[in-house]
Specification:
alpha+beta; Arc Repressor Mutant, subunit A; five-stranded mixed β-sheet; about 30% helix
Protein backbone atom coordinates (compact mmCIF):
# COMPACT_ATOMS: atom_id res chain seq x y z
CA UNK A 1 0.00 0.00 0.00
CA UNK A 2 1.52 3.32 -1.05
CA UNK A 3 1.58 6.45 1.08
CA UNK A 4 -1.08 8.19 -1.02
CA UNK A 5 -3.56 5.36 -0.49
CA UNK A 6 -2.79 5.33 3.22
CA UNK A 7 -3.37 9.09 3.47
CA UNK A 8 -6.67 8.82 1.60
CA UNK A 9 -7.85 6.07 3.92
CA UNK A 10 -6.85 8.07 6.99
CA UNK A 11 -8.70 11.13 5.69
CA UNK A 12 -11.80 9.04 4.95
CA UNK A 13 -11.67 7.47 8.40
CA UNK A 14 -11.42 10.87 10.10
CA UNK A 15 -14.32 12.17 8.01
CA UNK A 16 -16.54 9.21 8.91
CA UNK A 17 -15.66 9.56 12.60
CA UNK A 18 -16.72 13.23 12.42
CA UNK A 19 -19.98 12.23 10.70
CA UNK A 20 -20.67 9.68 13.42
CA UNK A 21 -20.09 12.23 16.19
CA UNK A 22 -22.31 14.74 14.43
CA UNK A 23 -25.09 12.18 14.07
CA UNK A 24 -24.96 11.28 17.76
CA UNK A 25 -24.86 14.96 18.75
CA UNK A 26 -28.11 15.61 16.85
CA UNK A 27 -29.93 12.34 17.60
CA UNK A 28 -28.77 11.49 21.11
CA UNK A 29 -28.55 7.75 21.76
CA UNK A 30 -28.39 5.42 18.76
CA UNK A 31 -27.28 1.88 18.00
CA UNK A 32 -24.44 0.96 15.68
CA UNK A 33 -26.93 -0.43 13.17
CA UNK A 34 -28.95 2.82 13.17
CA UNK A 35 -25.83 4.93 12.63
CA UNK A 36 -24.50 2.68 9.86
CA UNK A 37 -27.83 2.80 8.01
CA UNK A 38 -28.19 6.57 8.35
CA UNK A 39 -24.62 7.28 7.18
CA UNK A 40 -24.52 4.57 4.48
CA UNK A 41 -21.63 2.77 6.17
CA UNK A 42 -21.02 -0.96 6.38
CA UNK A 43 -21.41 -2.61 9.81
CA UNK A 44 -17.68 -3.44 9.77
CA UNK A 45 -16.72 0.17 9.04
CA UNK A 46 -19.02 1.51 11.75
CA UNK A 47 -17.65 -1.03 14.23
CA UNK A 48 -14.09 0.21 13.58
CA UNK A 49 -15.23 3.85 13.90
CA UNK A 50 -17.11 3.26 17.15
CA UNK A 51 -14.20 1.33 18.68
CA UNK A 52 -11.86 4.23 17.88
CA UNK A 53 -14.23 6.81 19.36
CA UNK A 54 -14.83 4.67 22.44
CA UNK A 55 -11.08 4.30 22.99
CA UNK A 56 -10.58 8.07 22.70
CA UNK A 57 -13.39 8.75 25.17
CA UNK A 58 -15.40 10.80 22.66
CA UNK A 59 -18.43 8.47 22.97
CA UNK A 60 -19.74 6.00 25.55
CA UNK A 61 -21.98 2.94 25.55
CA UNK A 62 -25.31 3.61 27.25
CA UNK A 63 -26.75 0.11 27.67
CA UNK A 64 -29.17 -2.07 25.77
CA UNK A 65 -31.74 -0.66 23.33
CA UNK A 66 -34.94 -2.39 22.22
CA UNK A 67 -34.88 -3.33 18.55
CA UNK A 68 -37.06 -5.08 16.04
CA UNK A 69 -38.03 -8.67 16.81
CA UNK A 70 -37.15 -8.26 20.51
CA UNK A 71 -33.49 -7.99 19.50
CA UNK A 72 -31.32 -5.82 21.70
CA UNK A 73 -28.41 -3.61 20.72
CA UNK A 74 -25.96 -1.45 22.63
CA UNK A 75 -26.65 2.29 22.50
CA UNK A 76 -23.96 4.87 21.81
CA UNK A 77 -23.93 8.53 22.83
CA UNK A 78 -21.54 11.48 22.81
CA UNK A 79 -19.50 11.61 26.00
CA UNK A 80 -20.47 15.19 26.78
CA UNK A 81 -18.40 15.26 29.98
CA UNK A 82 -15.14 14.20 28.33
CA UNK A 83 -14.47 17.63 26.81
CA UNK A 84 -15.34 21.21 27.73
CA UNK A 85 -15.71 24.67 26.26
CA UNK A 86 -14.94 27.92 28.04
CA UNK A 87 -17.44 30.77 27.84
CA UNK A 88 -16.76 34.45 28.55
CA UNK A 89 -19.44 37.16 28.72
CA UNK A 90 -18.61 40.87 28.62
CA UNK A 91 -21.43 43.19 29.81
CA UNK A 92 -20.04 46.67 30.44
CA UNK A 93 -19.21 46.50 34.16
CA UNK A 94 -19.55 42.72 34.34
CA UNK A 95 -17.30 39.91 33.10
CA UNK A 96 -18.49 36.35 33.61
CA UNK A 97 -16.55 33.18 32.87
CA UNK A 98 -17.90 29.64 32.83
CA UNK A 99 -16.94 26.08 31.96
CA UNK A 100 -19.45 23.93 30.06
CA UNK A 101 -19.57 20.37 28.78
CA UNK A 102 -20.51 19.52 25.19
CA UNK A 103 -24.19 19.32 26.13
CA UNK A 104 -24.11 22.91 27.44
CA UNK A 105 -24.26 21.93 31.12
CA UNK A 106 -22.14 24.31 33.24
CA UNK A 107 -19.49 23.09 35.65
CA UNK A 108 -19.30 26.60 37.08
CA UNK A 109 -20.12 30.21 36.18
CA UNK A 110 -18.52 32.99 38.17
CA UNK A 111 -18.11 36.74 38.02
CA UNK A 112 -14.78 38.47 37.86
CA UNK A 113 -14.26 41.72 39.85
CA UNK A 114 -16.52 44.59 38.79
CA UNK A 115 -15.14 46.61 35.89
CA UNK A 116 -15.10 50.40 35.67
CA UNK A 117 -14.47 52.51 32.60
CA UNK A 118 -10.92 53.29 33.75
CA UNK A 119 -10.05 49.71 34.76
CA UNK A 120 -10.92 47.92 31.49
CA UNK A 121 -7.24 47.33 30.50
CA UNK A 122 -6.53 45.77 33.89
CA UNK A 123 -9.68 43.63 33.59
CA UNK A 124 -8.52 42.35 30.19
CA UNK A 125 -5.10 41.48 31.66
CA UNK A 126 -6.72 39.64 34.58
CA UNK A 127 -8.96 37.73 32.20
CA UNK A 128 -5.92 36.56 30.22
CA UNK A 129 -4.39 35.17 33.39
CA UNK A 130 -7.65 33.49 34.45
CA UNK A 131 -8.10 31.80 31.06
CA UNK A 132 -4.51 30.52 31.08
CA UNK A 133 -5.06 29.10 34.57
CA UNK A 134 -8.24 27.31 33.51
CA UNK A 135 -6.61 25.91 30.36
CA UNK A 136 -3.82 24.49 32.52
CA UNK A 137 -6.28 22.98 35.02
CA UNK A 138 -8.63 21.58 32.36
CA UNK A 139 -6.60 20.10 29.50
CA UNK A 140 -9.72 18.95 27.63
CA UNK A 141 -11.04 22.43 26.79
CA UNK A 142 -11.67 22.48 23.03
CA UNK A 143 -12.49 26.15 22.40
CA UNK A 144 -13.33 29.51 23.96
CA UNK A 145 -16.50 31.44 23.11
CA UNK A 146 -16.79 35.15 23.88
CA UNK A 147 -19.87 37.39 23.87
CA UNK A 148 -18.89 41.06 23.64
CA UNK A 149 -20.97 44.21 24.38
CA UNK A 150 -22.40 46.30 21.57
CA UNK A 151 -22.49 45.63 17.80
CA UNK A 152 -19.26 43.79 17.00
CA UNK A 153 -17.28 44.78 13.87
CA UNK A 154 -15.57 41.51 13.03
CA UNK A 155 -13.23 42.95 10.40
CA UNK A 156 -11.93 45.53 12.89
CA UNK A 157 -12.17 43.60 16.13
CA UNK A 158 -13.92 46.48 17.93
CA UNK A 159 -17.42 47.09 19.22
CA UNK A 160 -19.23 49.97 17.51
CA UNK A 161 -21.46 51.43 20.20
CA UNK A 162 -21.67 50.97 23.94
CA UNK A 163 -24.14 53.36 25.59
CA UNK A 164 -22.03 53.56 28.75
CA UNK A 165 -18.39 52.78 29.49
CA UNK A 166 -17.22 53.84 26.04
CA UNK A 167 -13.71 52.59 26.82
CA UNK A 168 -14.88 49.18 25.59
CA UNK A 169 -14.79 50.63 22.06
CA UNK A 170 -11.00 50.94 22.40
CA UNK A 171 -10.52 47.23 23.03
CA UNK A 172 -9.49 45.20 19.98
CA UNK A 173 -10.92 41.80 20.91
CA UNK A 174 -9.31 40.11 17.89
CA UNK A 175 -5.84 41.34 18.77
CA UNK A 176 -6.32 40.54 22.45
CA UNK A 177 -7.77 37.05 22.26
CA UNK A 178 -7.93 35.47 18.78
CA UNK A 179 -4.36 34.10 18.81
CA UNK A 180 -3.54 34.34 22.51
CA UNK A 181 -4.22 30.72 23.46
CA UNK A 182 -3.66 27.21 22.14
CA UNK A 183 -7.36 26.65 21.39
CA UNK A 184 -9.68 28.45 18.92
CA UNK A 185 -11.38 31.63 20.20
CA UNK A 186 -14.81 32.50 18.74
CA UNK A 187 -16.00 36.08 19.29
CA UNK A 188 -19.64 37.10 18.79
CA UNK A 189 -22.00 39.88 19.81
CA UNK A 190 -24.08 39.21 22.90
CA UNK A 191 -27.51 37.70 22.26
CA UNK A 192 -29.35 40.88 23.12
CA UNK A 193 -27.93 42.82 20.19
CA UNK A 194 -27.16 40.08 17.68
CA UNK A 195 -30.32 40.77 15.70
CA UNK A 196 -28.51 43.46 13.76
CA UNK A 197 -25.06 43.65 12.18
CA UNK A 198 -25.30 47.36 11.38
CA UNK A 199 -23.04 49.83 13.23
CA UNK A 200 -24.99 52.74 14.69
CA UNK A 201 -24.16 56.05 16.29
CA UNK A 202 -25.94 57.62 19.25
CA UNK A 203 -27.71 60.94 18.62
CA UNK A 204 -30.96 62.86 18.70
CA UNK A 205 -34.02 61.08 17.37
CA UNK A 206 -34.85 62.18 13.85
CA UNK A 207 -38.16 61.54 12.13
CA UNK A 208 -37.86 59.83 8.78
CA UNK A 209 -40.50 60.53 6.12
CA UNK A 210 -42.77 57.60 5.35
CA UNK A 211 -41.95 55.92 2.07
CA UNK A 212 -44.94 55.49 -0.18
CA UNK A 213 -46.06 51.92 -0.77
CA UNK A 214 -45.01 50.63 -4.17
CA UNK A 215 -47.29 47.96 -5.58
CA UNK A 216 -44.92 45.82 -7.61
CA UNK A 217 -45.76 42.09 -7.46
CA UNK A 218 -43.19 41.32 -10.17
CA UNK A 219 -40.49 42.35 -7.68
CA UNK A 220 -41.92 41.17 -4.38
CA UNK A 221 -44.11 38.13 -5.17
CA UNK A 222 -41.92 35.27 -6.44
CA UNK A 223 -44.53 33.16 -8.13
CA UNK A 224 -43.20 31.26 -11.20
CA UNK A 225 -44.26 33.91 -13.71
CA UNK A 226 -42.26 36.57 -11.86
CA UNK A 227 -39.37 34.43 -10.65
CA UNK A 228 -37.97 33.72 -14.11
CA UNK A 229 -37.23 37.36 -15.08
CA UNK A 230 -36.00 38.10 -11.51
CA UNK A 231 -33.47 35.34 -12.01
CA UNK A 232 -31.69 37.63 -14.48
CA UNK A 233 -31.44 40.28 -11.76
CA UNK A 234 -29.99 37.70 -9.38
CA UNK A 235 -27.39 36.57 -11.93
CA UNK A 236 -26.34 40.19 -12.49
CA UNK A 237 -25.88 40.66 -8.75
CA UNK A 238 -23.79 37.49 -8.55
CA UNK A 239 -21.56 38.73 -11.38
CA UNK A 240 -21.02 42.02 -9.51
CA UNK A 241 -20.31 40.05 -6.34
CA UNK A 242 -17.66 37.99 -8.16
CA UNK A 243 -15.94 41.23 -9.17
CA UNK A 244 -16.18 42.63 -5.65
CA UNK A 245 -14.60 39.63 -3.87
CA UNK A 246 -11.36 40.09 -5.82
CA UNK A 247 -10.62 43.31 -3.94
CA UNK A 248 -12.94 43.21 -0.91
CA UNK A 249 -11.37 43.98 2.51
CA UNK A 250 -12.55 40.70 4.07
CA UNK A 251 -10.13 38.70 1.89
CA UNK A 252 -6.92 39.63 3.65
CA UNK A 253 -3.96 39.15 1.30
CA UNK A 254 -0.37 38.84 2.20
CA UNK A 255 2.02 38.11 -0.61
CA UNK A 256 -0.12 35.13 -1.55
CA UNK A 257 1.43 31.97 -0.11
CA UNK A 258 -1.05 30.07 2.05
CA UNK A 259 -4.79 30.15 1.36
CA UNK A 260 -7.18 29.31 4.19
CA UNK A 261 -10.53 30.22 5.72
CA UNK A 262 -12.39 29.78 8.98
CA UNK A 263 -10.82 27.65 11.72
CA UNK A 264 -7.95 26.60 9.44
CA UNK A 265 -6.68 30.19 9.51
CA UNK A 266 -6.22 30.00 13.28
CA UNK A 267 -4.10 26.86 12.99
CA UNK A 268 -1.96 28.31 10.19
CA UNK A 269 -1.43 31.62 11.97
CA UNK A 270 -0.35 29.78 15.12
CA UNK A 271 1.94 27.28 13.39
CA UNK A 272 3.46 29.73 10.90
CA UNK A 273 3.25 33.20 12.47
CA UNK A 274 5.66 34.72 9.93
CA UNK A 275 4.10 33.14 6.84
CA UNK A 276 2.34 35.03 4.08
CA UNK A 277 -1.35 34.12 4.39
CA UNK A 278 -4.28 34.75 2.07
CA UNK A 279 -7.26 34.65 4.46
CA UNK A 280 -10.58 34.06 2.73
CA UNK A 281 -13.17 36.08 4.64
CA UNK A 282 -15.62 35.57 1.76
CA UNK A 283 -15.69 31.98 0.49
CA UNK A 284 -18.51 32.43 -2.03
CA UNK A 285 -18.10 33.56 -4.66
CA UNK A 286 -14.42 32.62 -4.50
CA UNK A 287 -11.92 35.26 -5.69
CA UNK A 288 -11.08 33.32 -8.85
CA UNK A 289 -8.36 35.65 -10.13
CA UNK A 290 -6.49 35.63 -6.82
CA UNK A 291 -6.72 31.85 -6.53
CA UNK A 292 -5.52 31.53 -10.13
CA UNK A 293 -2.46 33.56 -9.12
CA UNK A 294 -1.87 31.12 -6.28
CA UNK A 295 -2.08 28.09 -8.60
CA UNK A 296 0.27 29.64 -11.14
CA UNK A 297 2.82 30.90 -8.63
CA UNK A 298 2.83 28.44 -5.75
CA UNK A 299 1.75 25.08 -7.23
CA UNK A 300 4.09 22.90 -9.27
CA UNK A 301 2.94 20.90 -12.28
CA UNK A 302 2.58 17.80 -10.09
CA UNK A 303 0.22 19.91 -7.87
CA UNK A 304 2.66 20.05 -4.96
CA UNK A 305 2.68 23.36 -3.07
CA UNK A 306 5.97 25.22 -3.39
CA UNK A 307 7.16 27.40 -0.55
CA UNK A 308 7.85 30.35 -2.81
CA UNK A 309 6.75 32.11 -5.99
CA UNK A 310 7.96 29.93 -8.86
CA UNK A 311 6.65 32.27 -11.54
CA UNK A 312 9.04 35.09 -10.55
CA UNK A 313 6.12 37.45 -11.18
CA UNK A 314 6.58 39.47 -8.02
CA UNK A 315 3.63 38.04 -6.12
CA UNK A 316 6.10 37.18 -3.39
CA UNK A 317 9.76 37.96 -2.80
CA UNK A 318 10.17 34.48 -1.33
CA UNK A 319 11.11 32.03 -4.11
CA UNK A 320 12.34 28.96 -2.23
CA UNK A 321 11.35 25.89 -4.25
CA UNK A 322 10.96 22.72 -2.09
CA UNK A 323 7.36 21.74 -1.64
CA UNK A 324 5.41 22.27 1.55
CA UNK A 325 5.07 19.09 3.59
CA UNK A 326 1.92 20.21 5.42
CA UNK A 327 -1.04 19.76 3.09
CA UNK A 328 1.08 19.64 -0.03
CA UNK A 329 -1.82 18.36 -2.15
CA UNK A 330 -4.45 20.71 -0.75
CA UNK A 331 -4.91 22.67 -3.97
CA UNK A 332 -5.36 19.47 -5.97
CA UNK A 333 -7.82 18.24 -3.36
CA UNK A 334 -9.81 21.47 -3.65
CA UNK A 335 -9.84 21.14 -7.41
CA UNK A 336 -11.18 17.60 -7.09
CA UNK A 337 -13.99 18.88 -4.85
CA UNK A 338 -14.98 21.22 -7.68
CA UNK A 339 -15.13 18.28 -10.12
CA UNK A 340 -16.58 15.51 -7.96
CA UNK A 341 -18.26 15.29 -4.54
CA UNK A 342 -19.68 12.36 -2.56
CA UNK A 343 -19.46 13.35 1.13
CA UNK A 344 -23.27 13.27 1.52
CA UNK A 345 -23.49 9.70 0.24
CA UNK A 346 -24.67 10.89 -3.19
CA UNK A 347 -22.21 11.39 -6.06
CA UNK A 348 -22.34 14.81 -7.71
CA UNK A 349 -20.59 15.40 -11.05
CA UNK A 350 -19.11 18.90 -11.72
CA UNK A 351 -20.84 20.37 -8.61
CA UNK A 352 -18.80 23.57 -8.25
CA UNK A 353 -17.04 24.50 -11.47
CA UNK A 354 -17.10 28.15 -12.65
CA UNK A 355 -19.55 29.05 -15.44
CA UNK A 356 -16.61 29.96 -17.66
CA UNK A 357 -15.40 26.34 -17.71
CA UNK A 358 -17.08 24.95 -20.83
CA UNK A 359 -14.76 22.04 -21.70
CA UNK A 360 -13.73 19.96 -18.69
CA UNK A 361 -12.88 16.30 -18.12
CA UNK A 362 -11.39 13.99 -15.50
CA UNK A 363 -10.55 10.31 -15.25
CA UNK A 364 -10.97 7.79 -12.39
CA UNK A 365 -11.46 10.11 -9.46
CA UNK A 366 -12.44 8.13 -6.36
CA UNK A 367 -15.65 8.69 -4.36
CA UNK A 368 -16.87 7.41 -1.03
CA UNK A 369 -17.79 3.77 -1.41
CA UNK A 370 -14.69 3.17 -3.64
CA UNK A 371 -16.27 4.12 -6.96
CA UNK A 372 -14.00 5.39 -9.76
CA UNK A 373 -15.72 8.10 -11.81
CA UNK A 374 -14.75 9.51 -15.20
CA UNK A 375 -16.64 12.38 -16.81
CA UNK A 376 -16.38 14.96 -19.59
CA UNK A 377 -18.12 18.23 -20.38
CA UNK A 378 -18.18 19.71 -23.87
CA UNK A 379 -19.47 23.19 -24.63
CA UNK A 380 -20.98 23.50 -21.17
CA UNK A 381 -22.91 20.19 -21.28
CA UNK A 382 -21.95 16.90 -19.67
CA UNK A 383 -21.31 14.44 -22.49
CA UNK A 384 -19.80 11.41 -20.74
CA UNK A 385 -20.09 9.78 -17.31
CA UNK A 386 -18.65 6.36 -16.46
CA UNK A 387 -18.54 4.70 -13.04
CA UNK A 388 -16.59 1.60 -12.00
CA UNK A 389 -17.03 -0.08 -8.64
CA UNK A 390 -13.87 -1.51 -7.07
CA UNK A 391 -15.48 -3.31 -4.10
CA UNK A 392 -19.19 -3.37 -4.95
CA UNK A 393 -22.06 -1.73 -3.13
CA UNK A 394 -24.91 0.79 -3.55
CA UNK A 395 -24.31 3.69 -5.94
CA UNK A 396 -26.24 6.98 -5.76
CA UNK A 397 -25.71 9.66 -8.46
CA UNK A 398 -27.61 12.95 -8.64
CA UNK A 399 -28.74 13.54 -12.21
CA UNK A 400 -27.78 17.16 -12.86
CA UNK A 401 -27.54 16.54 -16.61
CA UNK A 402 -29.80 17.63 -19.44
CA UNK A 403 -31.08 14.13 -20.23
CA UNK A 404 -32.13 11.00 -18.29
CA UNK A 405 -29.70 8.42 -16.94
CA UNK A 406 -30.49 4.98 -18.37
CA UNK A 407 -28.55 2.08 -16.87
CA UNK A 408 -29.26 -1.36 -15.35
CA UNK A 409 -32.88 -1.13 -16.38
CA UNK A 410 -33.37 2.14 -14.47
CA UNK A 411 -34.46 5.41 -16.09
CA UNK A 412 -33.65 8.42 -13.90
CA UNK A 413 -34.91 11.84 -15.10
CA UNK A 414 -32.94 15.07 -14.50
CA UNK A 415 -33.17 16.28 -10.94
CA UNK A 416 -33.63 12.80 -9.46
CA UNK A 417 -31.13 10.43 -7.84
CA UNK A 418 -30.03 7.36 -9.79
CA UNK A 419 -29.62 4.31 -7.52
CA UNK A 420 -28.17 0.90 -8.31
CA UNK A 421 -26.22 -1.91 -6.65
CA UNK A 422 -22.92 -2.71 -8.35
CA UNK A 423 -20.78 -5.82 -8.07
CA UNK A 424 -16.98 -5.62 -7.61
CA UNK A 425 -15.37 -4.54 -10.87
CA UNK A 426 -18.70 -3.66 -12.54
CA UNK A 427 -18.66 -0.59 -14.80
CA UNK A 428 -21.65 1.55 -15.80
CA UNK A 429 -21.94 4.10 -18.59
CA UNK A 430 -24.46 6.65 -17.31
CA UNK A 431 -24.14 9.07 -20.25
Amino acid sequence: MNSRTTTEQQTLSEYNRARTLQYLHHHGIASRAQIAKALHLTPAALSKISNHLLASGAIVETGALEGKGNRRSIGLAVNARAFQVLGVKFARSLIEIGLFDLAGKPSFIRELPTVENTTIPQAIESLHAEIRRLLAEHPHILAIGMAVPGPYLRDRGHTAVVSSMGQWRQVNFRAEFEHAFDVPVIIRSSVRISHTKTPVEAGERAEAPARPYEKNPAKWVMMPAFAKPRRLVQLDRIDKLRQWVETCPYNEKGAIGIVCAGAAYQHVAEALPDASIFKLGVTWPLPAAALRDFAQCFCLKNSFHANGDQSRSGKSNFTYRPFTLEGNMAFASSLQEMLLQSHTGTVRIFPAIPPSWKDVSFRTLRTEGAFLVSAAMRDGKVSEVKVRSTVGGPLRVLNTFSRPIEAKGVVCPPGEVFEANLTPGEELTLL
